[in-house]
Queue: 2 jobs
Job 1
Amino acid sequence: MSSAVYHIKKLAGEIGEYKKPAILTPIFVVLEVIMEILVPFLMAYLIDNGIDKGDMNTVIILGAVLITCTLLSLLFGILAGKFSADASAGFAKNLRHSVFYNIQNFSFSNIDKFSTSSLITRLTTDVTNVQNAFMMVIRIAIRAPVMMILAFVMVLIINGSLSIIFLCLLPLLALCMYLIITKAHPIFERIFKTYDKLNKVVQENIRGIRVVKSFVRESYEKKKFNAVSKEIYKDFSKAEKLLALISPTMQFFMYLAMLLVSWFGANLIVSDLFTKGELISVISYAMQILMSLMMLAMVFVMITMARASARRIVEVLDEETELTNPENPVTTVKDGSVSFKDVSFSYSKDSMRCALENINLEIKSGEMIGIIGGTGSSKTSLVQLIPRLYDVLSGSVSVGGVDVRDYDMKALRDEVSVVLQKNVLFSGTIKENLRWGNANATDEEIVRVSKLAHADEFIQTFPDKYDTKVEQGGTNVSGGQKQRLCIARALLKKPKILILDDSTSAVDTKTDADIRKSLREEIPNTTKIIIAQRISSIEGADKIIVLDGGKISALGTHEELLKASEIYREVYTSQTRGAE
């Protein structure tokens, strides 16, 4: 099966409950065309047998029939437009849903493969292109060939010799259209990839606008944007120049056909082999044939653009998450114990270098574990394996005595709360954001976890307190406040394992110490894993893991590591000297 056919079959499955309007549209389009085809034929008869012969009875009867045909054509056109709008809008809705829902199942590695900016382009621009193409296919792509065929048949019926004009011109016109479109298609493929780059530039700029302004980098960002924008302009103008050739080409063949029909038709009239009414009807059918070709050219242009978009959408629909549930998954996590056995991990299966190598680690339920290491030592990679955000390359990670790959992923992740380095808050109130941890949490529970995370103290200073609106991305709260809200949200899940990935870096040392004290006293049975850059944040932990180059360099308590680990001792010394 060719890729184009596969893409069509895959996308056709998204029509779903909108099959009825999708089928009714071409039916009403055909009926509309039939009415339009009858008009020139009836007009010729009216001229030859009514007006020329002075028969008013024929004029009145055929005039009434012509008005009826015109009104029916209008009615069928309106119905076709209504059903095509319903079908195309519904198809686009289903397509967006399927793409978005599949993205929700993606693992982190799947998202890394496409990039966020590319996925947004596919959900918006690409879906719109396919929607427009679908509307044209069920309406214009039906109307144009049906009208062209029926008009050609009518010309054959009226005068077969004149049909030779169209038989000669149509293949030449089709060849010109084919050459233009095949040249334009690769350019559109390139354009949509550049759109991804443009989205990425805009996203980065808007997300980091405060950094841009603080470093006075507006000029640099403008240059970066202009470079990508210019690239799109060059490709688009090149494609548009090619597609612009369609209109003059169509006009040339249209006028050529009209001249030839008029010339030969006039000669036939002089020879009494043709009537004036028949000439007028043949000219009308010639117009219909050539207008149909013009419409087909528009369809081909839209399909040319949509082909690239369809391929990109199907890529997302076909992408299967690398993380799947087993056949009979375990749905209960017994406790918060964690075990790493001979674990190696790489973000890419083709990579020659592992992010983690030969990790062996035992964590008892309820322990507080600290993790420290230099930048790039894979601290985050280590903890992301616990809730199975990634799968190990070799070895196994167990939670509650069960391999994480044997769990139902929802059940596992419900028991593991992760506060990542990049804290994210969503549009809505503080209360709504906190309820991401537990949708059914009471106001009392929300206040309790906020106090544990030392967030209640600043929430109470807001006029609307827990009903305070959080702007997108949490831009109206400070970094430290955002971190404490995210910790509170994680605690609301009442997890068996709580992972804080450098999640108190933006709070002062006293608040950091208060949060750790609260966690130790209020949730003693929850396993707490804290990644930190400050030794003061983890020195009271039951065990501290020192990571270096993706391997465990040392493991022990604060006192043991000061004696046994040179890396830990150097960090501690540099930080205490800095404090002094």
Job 2
Amino acid sequence: MTFNKYISFGAVAMITVAGLSSCDSKNDPAYIPAGSVSDSQRVFFLKNAYTQIVSAEENSFEFYVYRPDLNKLDENGNATAQMPAQSVKINASCAEDGVLGSMISVPTDVNFEAGSPNAMIKVTYDPSKMTGNHNYPIVLTVDPEYANEYSITTTTLSINKEEYTDWTPFVVGEETEVRNGEGSYTFTIYGSGTADPVRVMSRSVPTNPNDIQFEFQWLIDDDNPSLGWETFMTAYTKDGGKVVHVAPQESPWYSSTYEEPVMMADTYTYTGNDQYKGLSNFDPESGLFTLNMYYYVSPGGWGPANEFLQLRGYKDTNVYELSVQAQGQMEVGGKDYEMVSFDFTEAVTYVDYTVVNGELEEEEVNAVIEKMTDPEQDTYTISRIEKSQNVAMTFPSSGEYTVVAVGYNEAIDGTVEAKCSAYASFSYTTFDPYANWSPVTDKALYVDTFLPTLAAMMGGELPETDMTVRVDKSDEYKGLYRITDPFAESEYVEALGLGRANFGCIEFAILGDGRVYFPKNSVGLLDGSDEIFLASASYYFMTEQGMEPDDLPDYFFGMLNEEGTLITMEPTGGNPSDFILWFGGEGPYLCDMYFYLDLAGGAGAPAHKSALKTGKVEKGLTKMKLAGMPKVKAAAFPAFYKAVPQGTASVKLDRNVSKTLKSRR
């Protein structure tokens, strides 16, 4: 420890007596006026006692002795007179035998440099010879030849090699049969489920009880508790638990995929990002450790997300907490999965969740939650989990998705009440865009006025184009088709200043009576970094407004001919537009366009009208914006409307995707 190297003039007591008078009397007391110190360079200590904590990793520290600051400065702050260099003697003693010299050494000769009001005493020690948490009091005395009789010339320097106490069960307050340092640990990120019992052992520093180290332990063999406990994670706190740190260490799991141990740490320690500081902590009232964790291997990691260690015997705070974290996409056994973690506190009996298309805003999430908690709802396909775990989800196509979860508590009387909710949005990209799709033809003739409509929006004009395209059909949904990467061969994409996305399509669903509508899809084009999306207005009215196909006019639908080979859709003219467009990261906007698809690959398209022109419109397209229409969101997956029974979900859940538990020592 380094002490401040300065001195206040107030530390030196200078006494003068002047102007005293007395009456002429033989009874006047005799006195001797105090004079000034004969040697102005005499030295002193600042305090009567000091405590110095030392560590086993070092072997010395600095201590200081002082003298009056008699340097003289002119009005400009320049030195006009400087104190000379000076050597003084300091005497050291210790009541304990064998301390000074072999264990602790204090130099007896101390040197003041010229102009300096303080001098350093370098104290050395041998930590291997010192007893932990024991005070060694060293009495230091300025030699009388150099002592200042008006200040502190003797001080006691207590030197202590601080060490942690023995490991004991971690208990706040009085230990009881129930409050004994045991509880349960809920894993949520790489591992899943709850380990019970777990035990928390702790040790602290006597001089600072807020400096605590933890060992989290579970049974070596659940079926044979007599074998005792082993540590699966360590942690520490410097402030009594307000912030808990998990230093990088090997987790209980091993990655068979990467053939290496899975490492773990609290997210703040792992990233150093202040946004995670304080998220890992301990609540002494409820006995709950909340650990914001990150698990990782050399190629990457999983997290962040909270894990919980609940000690028994503490106040029931009745906390209903639910967290949903999208952990990222991975390939397992040749399939693509998005790993989503659900973790919740013990007060939450179970969690219901659903997945919807799109990145939802908070108000949209609230609308989904309101519908989910309605016992009579049939809009969303809901799944249930009764313990914190990771769920692997796979989807038939790439896109933005949001998982919405509601936590319920079941009371003793059997009543159930929604207590908490959470949601997480994520992007999903299929590694194989042709999975679950079968080819119909790669020679279909496709004509539309989509690109010319875009050109009109941006103040330009392009001719209509005929393209040969591939058409696929869904293996999972009867009546669902798509034009795969429709603009891959278009020569006009670059002319519009557009880029290409990794993959795009125009999906269309054919109803039983031959009417055709278009779900919302990325068409495979980019405006800058933003994807361009397209959907039919009929899709919006059916999914968002709850309308039936027969409630809508025919001009909102394309039509399949009797031979089942040709789909056409004319612009609506003066009526509301038949398509909706998202462009430049904004929307939706009205888009009235022509659509022609000949599955038989005819020689050419019949004559048709061009897309409606609106004149030059700024990129904001405010003149074309569909007033009052929210973003088109739909449950996953009526990827197309009522094509499959409501109970058949397109979100495939595979809870057999598991991690290999590392063998315990």
